[in-house]
Amino acid sequence: AGHRWESFATSASRRDGSRSSRKVSGLFGEWVAWMFARVMPGERDDLARKRLPAVVAAAAGLVAAVPLYANAVTEENLLYLEAWRAVYQAYYDGTYNSQNWFKLKEKTLKEYSMTTRKDTYAAIESNLSLLDDPYTKLLEPSKYAFITGNKKGGSVSGVGLEIAYPKNKSEEGILVVNSQAGSPAERSGIKSNELLLEIDGSPTSGMSLYEAASLLKGEKGTVVRVKVRDQENNVASLDLERDALTRKNVGSNFCALDSPTGYIRLSSFSDETDLEVRKAVQELQSKGIQEYVLDLRNNGGGSFNAGVNVARVFMNEGVIVNIADSKGIKDYYEAKNAAEDSSSRLTVLVNGGTASAAEVLAGALQDNKRAVLVGEKTFGKGLIQTLVKLSDGSGVAVSVAKYQTPNEIDINKKGIMPNVVKDDLPLLSDEPCTIAKAALE
Question: Which listed residue (356, 394, 399, 402) is catalytic?
Fold first, then answer.
C-alpha cells in the first residue's frame, strides 16, 4: 500500500513540476499511507472499495492547493488532519450539518497558518463549531487524560458538589443540592440551597449543568475558584482544591406511606450502578414495599450500558432504546427477561437536569408503559459520543449516533415530556419520604 501511495504522490509532483510541490506531495503521500495503515485490517478492504477514490481525490486536491499557501505539510497540519479525519469517518450526520467537509479542510489548510499548537487547536475548533453540536469537541491533552482516566466511575477528582437548576427559574445561578461529606466543598462551608454565581470567573447564569460540572471537575490538586451566595444573600469567593472523591450513585429509603413505598435516588450512572439498583430493589422488597419512586432529577447520565441495564431491573420485555444515525435505526437494545420487579407501580421523577443515559431509562419506562413520568421536561441530550485520541495526547469527542426512544422519538435538543407535569416537587435535599409522598399525590 505504501508503494502505491508513493507512486501516486510522485506522479502528482511531476505534473506540478516544482520542488515545493514534490516535497508537499511526498509528505502528503506519506500521511495517506500512514492513515491507511491505521485502519483495522478487517476494514481495509471496505476502505479501499468505498473510501479510496474519495481519499485519492482529496489528496490530489490538497497537493494542488498547498503550493499556494505553504512549502510543506507540517506536523501541525498533520495533527489537524487527524482530527478532521476522526470526524469524517465517525460523525453520525453524514451531511456534517450541511457542511462540505472536504472543502472545509482545504479552506482551513489555506487560511490557518498552524505555526503553533495553539493555532492548530484553533483550526480544529473552528471546524467543529460548524457542526452545531456541543458534544463533538476538542479535548486538550490534560482534559483527555482526565476523562479517559475516570470513565469507569467510582473515583473522580472534583469538589464534591451536587448541583441543580434553581427551583425559581427567574433566579440567577446554579443551586447547590448538597456538599458530599468530607469533600472540599463541605470543608469550605458550602451548604445546601446556596447558589453558585461563578466558576473560575465564568458566570453560571445561563450555564448548563454539563458546563458547570465540567468546570468543577479536574485533576487532583488543582484549584477552582467559585463565587457563592448563601440564603442570607452574603456572597463569598472560595478557592477549592480538587480531590479524589468516591461517588455514591444510588440511595434508597423505605417510606411508610398509605402504600409501603421504596424511594430510590439515582444521581448518575457508572459501570456498577445497575447492580446497586438491583440490590436496592431486593432490600426494599424484603421490607414489603408495594410501589417505587425512582428519582432521576438532575441525573446528567454517565455509562450508557448502565442506563440500559437499570431498565432491565424493571422490565422483562420490550425495546429499551434505538440507536440511529441520519439514515435511520441501526441497532436496538431490549429487555432480557431478568427483571427484579416488572409489575409493582413505578413513578419516575424527571426535570431539566435529567439527561443522556437517564433519558434512555426514562424513555424506555415511559414508552413501554412500565412507569409514569412526573416532573418537568428532560434536558434533551440524545447523542452518543466516542473518544478518538490524537498523536499529541489530545483527543476529539465525536458524536457517532443518536438515541431514539422505543417509539422511535428523537429526543436530542427536545427532551422527554413527563406524563404528569409538576414543577413544585420538593428539593432533592429534602427528606426522601417527603419527596416520595409529593410524587404520588
Answer: 356
d(CA 165, CA 42): 47
Tell how strand 291-295 and strand 345-350 pair up.
parallel
Please report the beta strands in 190-327, taking only residues with DSSP state E, as ranges in sequence order. 195-199, 202-203, 223-229, 235-241, 243-246, 250-255, 261-266, 291-295, 319-325
Amino acid at 80: Y
What integer pLDDT is reported at residue 353 of this predicted model?
A: 81
Question: Active site includes 157?
Answer: no
DSSP string, 381-420: --EEEEEEE-TTS-EEEEEEEEEE-TT--B-TTT----SE
| CA dist list (Å): 244 to 150, 247, 409 | 11, 10, 38
Supply the DSSP string of 347-372, one letter for each residue: EEEE-TT--THHHHHHHHHHHTTS-E
**Helix, strand, or coil here: 41?**
helix
User: What pLDDT sits at residue 150?
Assistant: 52
Burial of 260 from C-beta contacts in 10 A (0-12 / 13-18 / 19+): middle
119-123, 326-330, 406-410: lowest mean pLDDT where?
326-330
Q: Cell numbers of 422, please? A: 409538576
Cβ(192)–Cβ(181) below 8 Å? no
With a cut of 90, say whether residue 286 has pLDDT above it.
Answer: yes
Contact 309, 281 (CB under 8 A): no
Amino acid, single-letter form, for residue 160:
G
For the beta carbon of residue 182, count every other beta carbon within 10 angstroms: 12
pLDDT in tens, 249-262: 899 999 999 999 99
- What per-residue string of b and e applies to 63-91 under the rule 16 or more CB within 10 Å gives b? bbbbbeebeebeebbbbbbbbbbbbbebb
Cα separation, 73 vs 63, whole angstroms: 9
Catalytic residue among 267, 381, 394, 402: 381
Task: pLDDT band for 161, please (50, 70, 90 cuts).
Answer: confident
- Active-site residue 413, yes or no? no
Q: DSSP character for 32?
A: H
Length of the chain: 441
